[in-house]
Each structure stands twice: as C-alpha cells, then as structure tokens.
Amino acid sequence: MPYRDLREFLSVLEEEGQLLKHTDPVHPEPDLSAAARAVPNLTDRGPALLFDNIHGYRRGRVALNVVGSWPNHALMLGMDKDTPVKEQFFEFARRWDDYPVPAERRDDAPWQEHTIDEGIDLFQLLPLFRLNRYDVGTYIDKAVVVSRDPDDPDHFGKQNAGIYRIQVKDKATLGIQPLPTHDIGLHLRAAEERGENLPVAIAIGNDPVMTTVSGMPLTYEQSEYEMAGAIQGEPYRIAKAPLTGLDVPWGAEVVLEGEILAGVREIEGPFGEFTGHYSGGRRQPVIRITKVSHRTDPIFEHLYLGMPWTEMDYTLALNTSVPLYQQLKKDFPEVVAVNAMYTQGLLAVVSVKQRYGGFAKAVGMRAMTTPHGLGYCKVMIMVDETVDPFNLAQVMWAMSVKFHPQHDIVTVPNASVLPLDPSSDPAGITHKVVFDATTPIAPETRGHYSQTVDAPADTKKWEDLLKGLIK
C-alpha cells in the first residue's frame, strides 16, 4: 500500500498466492465469464484470474475476480490476507476518518503512451465478451466514469468518479445507466436543462482502491479521489484527460473520452445484474467516444455479475457498510457496526446499543434515508450491541429468540428503491421493513430475557491458543 496501478496490485497478489495466471488458449465466450463465475462458487478465499491467450486477440489480456475474495480485499487494504472481515471493517472505518487527503496531480500518466483520435474501434482495443447468456451485448462494468457538475465545474468535490454499467453498442458508441440518485444522474440532468452534452472520461483497469471507492455511496460534495487518498494512506495520483480536462486515475490502463448526448435515449439491456436477475431493457442515455488513450498491451479488467456471491459483493461489501456506519453513527453514537454486504445493502444488519424502547426501530428507519439507503436498505435487521452483525449465526440467533412478529416489525410503504430490484412495483417503488431483534427495554418491557449464558472463563485465551495450533 498504496498501489500505483492494477499491474502493481496483480504482482502483489501473485506474491501472496492470490493470482492465477492462465496461459492456455481460451475463447472469450463462454470461457472467461464461466471462470469468473466458478471462483466464488468454490471458495471465499479464491484468487484473481489473468488470461493472456484469448482466441481472436494477439495480445489481449483480461483480469477477473481481482478483489473477489476476503484475502484479496484485505491485501487491497494493505493488511494480512488472513485478516477477519470484522477487522477489515473497523480498519476501513478508521481510515475513513482521515478524509480528505488532497490528490496528487501528475502529468506523466502511463496511459499517455498511445492515443487514438480517428477510426476508434473498441472491439479491436479490448477483448470484449458477454457475461451471461441473455445479455443484449458486451459491457464494460468496472470502469471509473468521471463527470463534472455543469453548474459548478470548478468544485473538485462535485466532480464525480463512479462505476456504472456501460453497454458497448458499436465501435465508438456506448449506452450508460445513470440513475436519478447517482451523482452522474444529477450532472446529466443539469447539462440537459442547459441543452448541452455532458463530457465524460471513462478509465478502465484501475488500482483496487480507486475501484472500491468509486463504488462507495459518498455524499455529493465528497471527492472520491480524496477518499482514495484516505483509504490508501497517501495522496491519490490523478492526471488530466487531454480532451475533456477531467481528472482521471493516473494508473489507468485505458481512458475513453466523449460526451453523453443531451436528450438522446436508446434501449439498453437486458443485462444480468447483481440481483441475480436480468434487468430488462430500458431507454437510457448514449455516449459518443471521440478520443482514446491507452498503455501498451492494456489489461481489460472486467467484473462478473450474477447470482450473489460474486466479485462485486466482495468489492462493495465494506465500501457500502462503512459509509452507512459513519452516517448513522454521526446521529446515533450508539451504533456499533453495520453489515450491508448483502446485494449491495438491499438487506443490512445494524448492531446498536438501545437508549430506550423503540430506539433500534428509529435507527433502522433512519438508515433508509441515508444517501445509500434511499435506493437500498429495503430490509433492516436490528440487533443488540453484543451481537456481531458479521456473524450470521449470531444474527439468526437474535432473530429467532429476540424478534417478536407482533411487536417488532415496522413497515414503510411505497418507499424509493433502485429500479433494478426485481420486487419493486412499479420499478423503483417498494415497501421497506425493519425487523427489530434487539432485547426489549423500558418502556417496551416484555419477554423473558433475565440472564444470558455467557462463555466459560478463559474462552478467549483458548481461542487464541487453538488458532495458533490450527494454523
């Protein structure tokens, strides 16, 4: 830590035994997506995959499952690969408090090696392939998309760096899905109100910290680059894209530049999504690419999406949990930890010390109004501060013995949710629910919770002893 680029991180993964290089010939379809699906099916400690012998491409390289396991996530944070998830969560939260760390501007980015202004053909540049059998086409789904607020272009924090699904429609035309709750959705609305196109830069193949932070639900004025600096403990390197002037990751493999066309919408999708279902086709904005910059023999980093768990779940697990934790703790110091790892936080578990009866239910409803909760947090499970929200056995114990179906359900009707939630009806609207599995306290006194069974003396000492012996 910090990693200058994707290549440096792959080298560390190889040293740690967390990278598998596959040099035998493979076909783009279905070999690459099948391999990316297979790894998390087998283990939560799986390696990243690097392919360099792809049929139809003389020098094409594809990296998959780069942060697709807990050891790889720990290495992304610069921690020992055996670090437990809960420890990674609190270390992530500790570094969040160091925000902001000013970015470092550089003018010697590796992606400046080659430039294409005419005859752009993304199918020649990248070994594109479909992820799932009914995808309408090929996608770029792990790139950092950068845009600025047209009404306040000099505000560094309002420059957004986010990850969105991007359909490759032809050699130089893309479709993109910016939701109204996304920062880029706000930028596009402001540009279209002016009757202007929205300039964008798309950085493909980035260091793992930038990828992680770009998927993080920050507030509108928080800079992803300054947060990346906080998470990696050193200023994050950025460089100015030559056509748009947007700030992009210094170490990217490829930088695409162009514009989202004002007022233009075309059918985008279907696409197999993180919900485990296809999204269907919807009319979405269109991007015209007019400039490409790239490194020699760029690595195309891609992300498999489908039924959880996949690399996406590992990548977004803590970068969703930590912002929710920080935003809730700001108002309620009694919040101990947040686990929003399930389907990007459509379901979240919060451990909280209660002030009084009904307090946990109020915290659960507050989570639904955080920036991320507006589109997620459909199901909230509240547990006592003594329950580890990352330990599903403990959470299910609390649900089975603390939760009372008559008293402990709060339903919020017709709330907002992301349209991709297949249960929403109409798309984007759903009921949300809080399950309160905390111990009732005054004035909400009921049940028979006199004395819990604690662990025998010296259990922790024996845990440490046995851990060393097992290892």
Give the helix/strand layout.
Blueprint: H1 6-15, E1 19-22, H2 28-42, E2 48-51, E3 61-64, H3 70-76, H4 85-96, E4 104-105, E5 114-116, H5 122-125, E6 139-140, E7 144-147, E8 160-162, E9 166-170, E10 173-176, H6 183-193, E11 198-204, H7 208-214, H8 224-232, E12 237-240, E13 247-249, E14 254-268, E15 282-294, E16 299-301, H9 311-331, E17 335-342, E18 347-352, H10 359-367, E19 379-384, H11 392-401, E20 409-416, E21 429-437, H12 459-470
Task: Describe the 3D structure.
There is one protein chain. The chain has two domains: 6-302, Electron Transport, Fmn-binding Protein, Chain A (Pnp Oxidase, Chain A, Roll); 332-436, UbiD C-terminal domain-like (3-Layer(aba) Sandwich). 27% of the residues lie in helices and 25% in strands. The protein has twelve helices and 21 strands. Strands 5, 6, 7, 8, 9, 10, 11, 14 and 15 form a nine-stranded antiparallel β-sheet that branches. Helix 4 (85-96) packs across helix 9 (311-331) and helix 7 crosses helix 8. The radius of gyration is 23 Å and the shape is globular. The chain starts with 5 loop residues before the first helix and ends with a helix. The model has no long low-confidence stretch (mean pLDDT 95).
